[in-house]
Amino acid sequence: MTELELSIKSYFGVIDPEEVSSIASLFQPELLKKGDYFLKTNKNCDRLSFVQSGFLRIFLETEDKDVTQWISTKGYFVTDLSGFIFDQPARWTIQALTDVEIYTIRKSEYEKMKTTIPRWSELEKLFIVHCFTTLEDRIFSHLSMTAEERYHFFFENNKELFNQVPLQYIASMLGMRPETFSRIRKKQLS
Amino acid sequence: MTELELSIKSYFGVIDPEEVSSIASLFQPELLKKGDYFLKTNKNCDRLSFVQSGFLRIFLETEDKDVTQWISTKGYFVTDLSGFIFDQPARWTIQALTDVEIYTIRKSEYEKMKTTIPRWSELEKLFIVHCFTTLEDRIFSHLSMTAEERYHFFFENNKELFNQVPLQYIASMLGMRPETFSRIRKKQLS
DNA sequence: GTAAATTCTTGATTTTTATCAAGAGCAACT
DNA sequence: AGTTGCTCTTGATAAAAATCAAGAATTTAC
What we know:
2 copies of one chain form a homodimer.
Chain A: H1 3-12, H2 17-24, E1 28-32, E2 37-39, E3 47-53, E4 56-61, E5 66-72, E6 77-78, H3 81-86, E7 93-96, E8 100-106, H4 107-116, H5 120-144, H6 147-157, H7 167-173, H8 178-189
Antiparallel strand pairs in A: 1-8, 2-7, 3-6, 3-8, 4-5, 4-7
Helix pairs in contact in A: 1-2, 7-8
Chain A binds a DNA duplex (30 and 30 nucleotides) through helix 8.
């Protein structure tokens, strides 16, 4: 099984191998160079991609600062979900932080899965609810944890990220300033 | 059209009246007394309900404090989404803050919609993506706003809530302590 | 209607986090 | 290799928010 197939399997729960390869076959490989934009705010988002390698930053520029909403890593899917599903202008800008390999499915192909894969609607729902639950957890972390607690929690689960992308983006994603991030990090290292 | 039907219509987007009443007919009225639990953490959540009147608090008790995740009001649906969809133990406790009228559909009836309403899977997906987008906005508010900004933003969009439920719960839901909430409120009133 | 319980406010203080400013460390470019 | 940008760190200070404690206001229960 390819990594794409393994991820489809793990994202969508128990699912038979025929279905997995049938879904995987609809994704096409693409390469992004560091700095390339996968998507820009207000543009149309007609693709859903699986990250095979590299890092992508999902963010929004406000008057006074950039806000990093998330960093997508190997094994995750990346898209502007509401834009992709509702054909609305994208909420987020998505940019490659490193060279990136992705597997992409276009909206038109995506629509076909409904008919070619009988269980697709059900799998798709489970996928989206899973994403929903992840966001619920993130909100909870902002309601119940300090910056330092969020740092530690995130660090424990994403160690590999800390020496591969600019730390300022991780800081933003955790809801703190880079200086605060740096000070927490210093404490932790000693 | 009943309020339930209107809400189904607005939640699920454009949809024909036959479909609306067909969906609405599967919901049964229920009454909750103030203080009643709609759901408790780790229990099975087999219902999705539409709030006709009253307020429900969705929260979690941690060692040191209660964390209010959301307050459901008239016109909203309420459930523990991951518990309901995945048949997993509920993540949240949900309690009536006032007497509450709801319309409820049980999981078993809910499952039937897939077959009786052709477009159901599509509508359901749109519904869940809509919920997802709402949570994205909330995360963004924690990454980019101060407590005071979150207060004002929420106040502008939910004025009615401020004189109908204990303010400490709104404070928690916005990620601040009741004292901070009270001080911001004082500033605003003057 | 009154007592009890809960919720809200306020002040004083501490802790946490942001801001500002400067310099050090690193990486990228030619 | 040297210069130019970024990025990260550090210190000093300011602002924001939490904590603690007490009392006022409101709601609930009998």
